[in-house]
């Protein structure tokens, strides 16, 4: 039986392949630039995490807390179903689902297409809820002003070093499901230390949408980013 890994199963000689993924990312960056130019006045926040870390629940709660003073919209990506958009609309948010058709991340061209189908007049903050995945979304600039990564207390505190690019490219790490910290082996200090070794500028806020911890700080952070975007 051949026990070699598939990547080593070459006959004699090898082929040096062009990395076409790099070209794709270059094309993505052009579209991301176009999105930035299209949306000069509103704050765009790209929310990333593993599946189920609490992105949609956080946005529902953000809508309840900030919905009266700010105009909020969400483009939410999932491989299938419109379930998250339905949840967000029920919370009073202007939401549109991007169904990626199995793709594990959102690309800038998907955002550009979606912008033709959502009315952003008067919008202050546009959230993009990315597909649940700590890997691929990190490589795709979506024209955002800030990237926020959730790391749930149930995922283990070793993730920032194992998936460094996501934390390197984020402005803020939210340690979500903080209400479960007494029951799971997760050290906020250890996760924050590892994350800041990857990205010394990363801000860290533990949150619980269930109990309300950290949500005032999260809302203040958003308002500060919005003021910064508008030159305040
Ligand atoms: N204990 C606890 N559970 C939470 C918290 N926030 C979210 N959850 C639960 O976590 C589960 C997943 O939450 P979602 O908001 O759907 O997570 P998501 O990141 O949007 O999931 P995907 O879009 O599928 O990647 C749900 O059962 C939520 O009720 C929290 O602060 N504490
Ligand atoms: Mg979701």
Automatic annotation (TrEMBL):
Gene Ontology MF terms: GTP binding; GTPase activity; nickel cation binding; zinc ion binding
One Pfam family this sequence matches: cobW
Keyword terms, alphabetized: GTP-binding, Hydrolase, Metal-binding, Nickel, Nucleotide-binding, Zinc
Domain (AAA+ ATPase): residue spans on this chain: 41-179
GO BP, sorted A to Z: protein maturation
Family per record: Belongs to the SIMIBI class G3E GTPase family. HypB/HupM subfamily.
Protein name stated in the entry: Hydrogenase accessory protein HypB
Lineage: Bacteria, Pseudomonadati, Bacteroidota, Flavobacteriia, Flavobacteriales
